């Protein structure tokens, strides 16, 4: 499947870090690159890894072309000093891929000081699927998510179960990122139950039987290993005091359902509504990244529980409903935030195919129309 991210296009501009969780397709994209033009150094290969770990200065011996890919660069952060030197002295351009930013964030690691831009690769998006793979199966996506293997191939449940097992064993246990894997395993199960909700470290800690400070560290570990991201609150409201607590979203709805041991998703259930919201979160996050929009992505909730699901910059406020029919009764949060400032877009996104513009400024959009506009960059 053709992806929006083109590694060769990135390399033609400048050196890049390309980050993305395991399984989103980084290695697949690398394999499609012309081996006569691009040197690929795969640090998951034991022989290569041991050689360069022992002596990072050997990197130059692996390079014949001016375009170079180092896959899973976080495994040997010391290579970045050599990369820096080769960029400066030989004008090489590097694509440095990684499924974790943990080791690269530590003090003293050379992050190339602006000599490499950062890009991200996510799971499959609605835009990629409809452009290249035919009709989009929303129900399949909501249940199994957008990891390419889970969405496109058979046995998605087995794949997702193996995926979470691999994450715990390879990313966490093998790298000795936590002292007790059993504590962390309980935590991610509880975190999955709390997906898309306000983060309450004490409550999660009680449910997972770990201290709140440990929960805070574990959430940071999920972010560092690209398993999810905090969605910050929009705090610029004046008439209504806003909460200051963030929400946490895993990077993929299929991962959440696998952790929750869910094999079905009932259409009128609360889980379906949460999955639909999660799907649109993933689309907005991906669109902002791929279209290189640097506007803030957040949500809003007032102290008296008036809420808007997503906010893009100071332009667009988005409320999500999984209902097949919506009305002005669903405008409560959008009307409240409209009193705080003027918005270019006040959107209610749902399954209702009857689009409508209200005098209040609120616009009803079917989710497909919303996504079509989103990927054209009309909301930022």
Q: Please, could you describe this protein's structure?
A:
- The chain is built from 15 helices and 13 strands.
- With about 375 residues, it is an alpha/beta fold.
- Helix 6 (about 140-145) packs across helix 12 (about 255-260), helix 9 crosses helix 12 (about 255-260) and helix 10 (about 200-210) packs across helix 11.
Q: Beta-strand percentage?
A: 15-25%
Largest sheet: 6 strands, mixed
**Roughly what is the average pLDDT, rounded to an integer?**
93
Q: How many strands appear in the DSSP assignment?
A: 13
> Uncertain segments of ≥5 residues (pLDDT<50)?
none
Question: Roughly what percent helix?
Answer: 25-40%
CA-CA gap between termini? 27 Å
User: How many DSSP H or I helices?
Assistant: 15
Order of secondary-structure elements: HEHEHEHEEHHHHHHHEEHHEEEHEEEH
Q: Rg, please?
A: 22 Å
Structural class of the helices, strands and pairings? Answer: alpha/beta
**Coarse morphology:** globular
Strand order of the largest sheet: 8-9-10-11-13-12
Essential attributes:
5-stranded parallel sheet, 6-stranded mixed sheet, 17% strand, 15 helices, 380 residues
Describe the SSE topology.
Layout (H helix, E strand, L loop, with lengths): L6 H7 L1 E5 L6 H6 L6 E5 L3 H9 L12 E5 L7 H12 L2 E6 L17 E5 L5 H7 L5 H7 L3 H5 L3 H18 L7 H13 L7 H8 L3 H13 L3 E4 L15 E4 L2 H7 L10 H21 L6 E5 L5 E6 L3 E5 L11 H7 L6 E6 L5 E2 L4 E5 H8 L6
Helix pairs in contact: 6-12, 8-12, 9-10, 9-12, 10-11
